[in-house]
Structures are given as structure tokens and as C-alpha cells.
Amino acid sequence: MRLSASLLGVWLMAVAVTTLGSTKSLPTFQFLTEEWRPYNFTKDNVPQGIAVDMLIRMLDKVGSKQGRLDIKVYPWARAYDLALHTENAILFTTTRNKAREELFKWVGPIFKNTLHLYALKKNKIKINEATDLHRYKIATYIDDAAEHTLINLYGFNINNLNRSGQQVDGIKRVYYGRNDLFAAGPDTLNNLSKEIGVDRGEFESVFLLSSNDMSYAFHSAIPDEYVQIFQKAFDELKSEGVLDELFEKYLEL
Fold first, then answer.
1. Using the 8-state DSSP alphabet, how is residue 88 labeled?
2. C-alpha to C-alpha distance for 253 and 231, rounded to whole angstroms
3. Predicted local confidence at residue 251, as pLDDT
């Protein structure tokens, strides 16, 4: 039986997808992440969390032999730098914003994250407009989305930010009066306040920095067909309710 040109094209595409999804055809990726509960963190030296478990399910679905122990956990600044300069790298969980859009290829979104600047309630800080931000000492986490947003959208000089390689340092600096503001999302604020043993209610949002999708960032050199395979696996797992189940599991911990 002869196939029409259009049917032949569809058949060839299906064969290509099947081949690319096979273990033999998939390259070995370098998975990079940080400690950021509940999305990616280590317990007993084993990576886990919402984004980690979703990635493992995706790897299984695309036929990869890579798994949990192939995920490397670093401080964010190092992971981000490696992701920019390692051609087989996949970085997560990564804010997809305008500044990063062309730096990576994207799979997701896992969820939408809002970033706020938080202050101690007792300090009664009021931000009426963005230019007011420059009056305050702001603690940032090196090379994270909030720091990039302050620099690229709100005109901050990197030397005027109080930068740290540990996200928890920001909330500590504000709590102990060394800085005025620190950046975080609501879930991160909850986890950081627990980590240092203070009441989350002592802090309040005084400025909304941004709202962006959180996704898996693939190095720009990774061929589009591989990115598409992972996106297809992500979409199928999400439609099956896997992502919702992972959120329910980890948000209860």
C-alpha cells in the first residue's frame, strides 16, 4: 500500500519521536538544582521534592536510564553558572522571565511563583512606588530571579545589594535589623521562617516584584526535539494528575 505524502510525513514524525524517546538515542544530561523546599531538596543525601519527583517521572516516560542520583545539588549561583556553560545541562526549578527567556529552552510550567519584598511588620515600611525601593537596604540571594529583577527592571546596581550565597541569610539579616527588605515567594517565606525559628506573621509583603512561571531550563544547545519530548512527557503526566499529587504530597510535609 502506498502512503500519501502527508501520511508518510506523519508516520516518519512518529518514528522519529519513538526513536528519540528510546534510551539509546537520548543523550546523558546534567541535572542541576539547589536546596529549595518543597520543590527540590535533599533528605539523607537523596534529591527529592515536587520538581525532582516530576523529573524522575518524565525520565521514566521518555525511556531514559538516568535517575535521582544523577541530580546534582549546588548553591544556586553555582548551579546557574554551570547551566549557562554546560551544553547538556538542565536546571530547575527556574524562574522563566524576560531576562532569561533566550538563555534557555523551557519545559513546564511547574507552577507560577510570585516574588515579594518582605519587611518586619514592626518597622512599618511602606512602598508607594518602585523608586522608594532605593531608600532601603535589600538582602538578595546571588543570581536568583529576584536579584535579576531588581537589577534589570528596577535599576539597582549589583554593588548596592546585600548579596548572599544562602537564601536563609536574607531573612536573618532583616530579622536582626541589618537589612530592611529581602525577597522571597510566600512558600519560601514560610520555610525560611521555620528554618530560623521565627513566626512568619512577623513579616509582611511591602512590594510585589514579579509573577512568573517556574520551569525546567534546558541549555540552549540542547536540540529542540529533545526539549519537545520532555514537554510532551510533562504535559501527559500533568494531565494524568501526577503534578497535583506531588503538590499534595510535599506541601503537607
1. T
2. 28
3. 85
